[in-house]
Write a structure and sequence with these properties.
The structure holds two protein chains of two kinds. Chain A has a single domain, classed as Arp2/3 complex 21 kDa subunit ARPC3 (Orthogonal Bundle). Chain A is mostly helical. Helices cover 73% and strands 0% of the residues of chain A. By secondary structure, chain B is α+β, with helices and mostly antiparallel strands. Helix content of chain B is 25%, strand content 36%. In chain B, the strands form two sheets. Chain B has a four-stranded antiparallel β-sheet with strand order 2-1-8-7, with no helix packed on it. A four-stranded antiparallel β-sheet of chain B has the order 3-4-5-6. The chains are: A mainly alpha, B alpha+beta. Chains A and B meet through helix 5 and helix 7 of A and helix 2 of B.
């Protein structure tokens, strides 16, 4: 499972390099997503979670946490939104998604697939963002009405992200077969 | 058959549970937040509240407005404009309102019928310091 960290004496420099690689990848994917034209601002496919879920699988849960949170901080910094409401939304969504995915990840890897974990994480992400947005703008009631359409979108987006993650992990030989991802 | 193979390859049975939970949680605001019924209808002409009628009263009110009288009917917890002295009768065609927050407006007459709920009337929507 932890292909990259098989070597127990992995040097600190190598570990930092792997973390930096994953973070940079997640960051670039996220930034491209931000610039991509969307019919509605919140209709994000969430492709950067491909990298984060791959990191959970390959690097371990804690390192995936690090990758995701550093991605949010640097991304907000680069877009000039550090410590702005947008940053609060991003970080709350990411942390909630990470918590939910971490809870589901080891418990039921036999029964759940990565796609299911991705759907749960995506839903946690948007519901945390809706909650924070409602609290920030004094509209806890009105904001809840965003939840149904966003839920429909995140189910599909989460499934797609999960499927792409599985395909990528298989193609990069991080796991032997696709069923390994779902069974290990 | 290929669709089934596709699902068997990438998904697992408990995924359906996840999707079901997500759908239920995602659509819960629709049930929890029924919106409620209006308690009072407040009729405002020229920015001044002329009269506030409880929603369960079944009456027809005639309000005098700048262009002439406007007849508003309250029945069944709903309010609608029956007759109006405005040229386009958009307010009449607006239909009925019943939930708090809904409103019918007659712009030439500067008249508004607003449905109010049980919440306290707040002066400000938000305050920034």
């Amino acid at each position: 499972m932890m292909q990259f960290y098989d070597d127990k004496n992995i040097s600190r420099a190598r570990k930092i390099s792997y973390l930096a690689l994953f973070t940079a990848l997640a960051l670039v994917i996220w930034m491209v997503e931000e610039f991509f034209p969307k019919p509605v601002p919140w209709l994000k496919p969430g492709f950067s979670y491909i990298v984060i879920i791959a990191a959970m699988e390959v690097l371990g849960l804690f390192d995936a946490f690090v990758v995701a949170i550093v991605r949010v901080i640097i991304g907000s910094l680069l877009f000039g939104r550090l410590f702005s409401p947008s940053f609060l939304l991003s970080i709350s969504g990411t942390v909630s998604a990470l918590v939910v995915m971490s809870l589901l990840f080891p418990l039921r890897k036999k029964y759940l697939s990565l796609a299911g974990i991705s759907i749960a994480g995506a839903f946690a992400h948007i519901s945390a963002q809706i909650f924070v947005a409602g609290a920030l703008f004094y509209r806890p009631d009105a904001v809840l009405w965003l939840l149904p359409p966003m839920t429909i979108w995140t189910i599909f987006a989460g499934a797609i992200v999960g499927i792409i993650t599985i395909i990528i992990l298989e193609k990069f030989k991080a796991v032997k077969k696709v069923s390994d991802v779902n069974r290990v | 058959m290929e669709v089934k193979k596709f699902f068997r390859k990438y998904f697992r049975p408990c995924d359906l549970i996840v999707v079901a939970v997500v759908l239920a949680a995602g659509f819960s605001p629709v049930y929890v937040h029924s919106g409620g019924k209006a308690k009072k209808f407040s009729i405002i002409v020229g920015g001044i509240e002329k009269i506030s009628i409880p929603a369960d009263a079944d009456t027809i009110i005639t309000i005098s407005a700048p262009l002439g009288p406007v007849k508003i009917e309250i029945a069944d917890g709903k309010a609608r404009v029956v007759e109006s002295s405005c040229p386009h009768k958009i307010c009449v065609r607006s239909g009925a309102i019943s939930r708090p927050g809904q409103a019918i407006a007659c712009v030439p007459n500067r008249l508004m019928v607003i449905a109010k709920g049980s919440e306290e009337k707040e002066k400000y929507d938000a305050i920034l310091r």
